[in-house]
Prior knowledge:
Radius of gyration: 19 Å
Number of strands: 10
Order of helices and strands: HHHEHEHEHEHEEHEHEHEHEH
Strand content: 5-15%
Structural class: alpha/beta
Distance between the termini: 53 Å
Low-confidence stretches: 327-334
Amino acid sequence: MPPISSTILKGTVRHDWTRGEVEALFDAPFADLIFAAQTVHRRHFDANEVQFSQLLSIKTGGCPEDCGYCNQSAKFDTGLKATKLMEVDEVVASARAAKEGGASRFCMGAAWREPKDRDIPALTHMVREVKALGLETCMTLGMLTDEQTAALADAGLDYYNHNIDTSPEYYDKVITTRTFQDRLDTLERVRNAGINVCCGGIVGMGEEEGDRAGFLLALANLPAHPESVPINALMPTTGTPLGRPEAPDPLDFVRMIAVARLMMPQSVVRLSAGRENMSDETQALCFLAGANSIFVGDKLLTTANPGQEHDEGLFARLGIKPMAPTQRQSQAAE
């Protein structure tokens, strides 16, 4: 098997990856892949720093989409109670607590296909108030119109999350209520508005390795790489079509992190959902493979996450420290 090329090891940002190149990375000997990923990671980041985000569900359940992994879909009987959009003061209080707990970015998620125009004033108010605390802001609200995107940008939203979830070829096995192109159109709209993009996907939904390669290929060949790339391990939920407890092999998941790092060398790669079910050793390998962002706090949108005490103990053992706030975030705090 040929070694990983010197061109890849240089950590150059590219948008012309071929499927053959990506599949070769997945097939590389594990030690070679991890060495390459760590080499590239150190070219662009401090290898012992991790960015801490916290996620809050500001509107839970009742979503009309049929994403097969999601317990917030109204099409599935998961026992989750739908709620209305939270009040701004409640969101700000949660953001303040997140900052006190060490988060530098506060992510707000609403279970919508797309927000209604009447919701935008409350959402932009949330963005402004959370930014005033000195936190980076991120929202995930589904699809957006040009006008809604512009309003969020004017409010100063730092990041917008909109995952492509999986490969274009496997997409309709997971979701039928919107297309892969719908996802790309939203990403383009967000990018054109000057908002940073947060976009990733999920491992463990029954996809083959080729689909994992196709997912990263679609992501890395976008006109601009997402600034933040969350890689999630499926958290199976009873009542959803993908509720089967078939967790991906831990080393396969580490490979996913490593290949993402090599293909998008300047992006922050987030070890996202699924940490609750990962051993400390698996998480350590993910950080070694180039993951440098996590969600902190004991809950994601609706699923469990390791608590602060556990994370602090793990990071102390690994010598990991919080990533310094970005310049944009520091200015927001002034």
